[in-house]
User: What shape does this take?
Amino acid sequence: MEGGDGGVQPRSHRSPSTRIKRKKSPIKNRSAHSIKRQKIVFNKEIVTQEFDSAQNRPSSSTSIPDSCSTRKHKGRKIKRSRFRDNSRQWVWCSRDFSSYRDKVIVLSYNILGVENASNHQDLYFNVSPKLLKWKWRKKLITEEISHYNPEILCFQEVDRFDDLEHLLNRDGLRGVYKARTGEAKDGCAMFWKDDKFTLLHQEHIEFQNFGLCHNVAQLCVFKMRKSRLKSGVDTEVSPITPTRRFLVGNIHVLFNPKRGDIKLGQVRLFLEKAHRLSQEWGSIPVIIAGDLNSMPQSALYQFLASSELDILLHDRKKISGQVDFPLQRKALSSNIYTTRPLIHRWSEEELRLATGNEEISLLHHHLKLSSAYHGVPGNYSTRDDNGEPLATSYHSKFMGTVDYIWHTEELVPLRVLETLSIDNLRKTGGLPSEKWGSDHLALVCELAFVNGGTKT
Assistant: This one.
């Protein structure tokens, strides 16, 4: 502190005339009925949080413990993640969600396989070699994940599962892994908070068994543990009530933009098996996550959203939109082909791969799916006209959205983690970067079970 006449006096020597007037907190000016006090548990510490009853969201003046801080606990120091991010913010839905008690935070993340990064260096010529090393990236990825605190995690391009498992086990996460078939060494992995969910059933799909290349998918049935805390109105342990069961599917669809027949076939088979499992377990809700290697303006996206697709109206090589639809806001109109219907030729083999039958050209699926990000309106700088992120992946040859989280009608999205604006992405020069450990961005959403959701 500088001395002299202009210096600041110590607090104990300030005269009454030099006392600083402190502004009253704006929260005190609100009417008493508009504020609720609520206890929240953060890492076994109970904190009082003020909520605006009109919005059911934390008030701006509320101080919440930073999960990235360092604190002492029973005489020992526990290190928190150093991850700091002000560029990605949670966006909340407009509905009143105070009545929703059972919730789950879901993450989907293509973490860039180590072998893929090494074998496709042309995609990362703007990226420092240091930033591509797994030793660096795994630290960024796990610190980022810890910051978001997800409860169900779906990963794609995992080829260092043991490393990932070791790091995530520290946060109470358990996982299962399915490697791709063929020469590729990556696969899909799914993790869950062991103190909140029990894995009831798991199975996987090897698409090569159906002539659909070497990609794989995972399907897991979970139930919420009865000791799970309510996330609604207090911190008391929930009474012993029926617990929720739900299905989570994780998929990484074939990349090749020209093989729309195989892309459709993989998604069709994946949705068929998800629906069958959902029915076998009592018509339970379904969550679908993954890298679909398809754009929001594509026919494949249309198939997921509308539950049907006449594939003869589409060119096989343009099903995923990776070629026709570079970065743009405009959504694909459902009646885009009504003014100029065009019948494309598909061979019997291509029809069989896409639909499962060479005599069928109209695809259907039985899951009523909605996109989590579409369900929570976001910022114009990060969303397209369909409500999807403008970009979830960025490297030297591509910027666009290929990653999604979908859910059935028994679930509603409460909030989603906004992605980065295009300007912010371009400033990185390409992903991975010093802050982001993959060439994809993690998608995170919180879903709530509606009152009609299945209980057991």
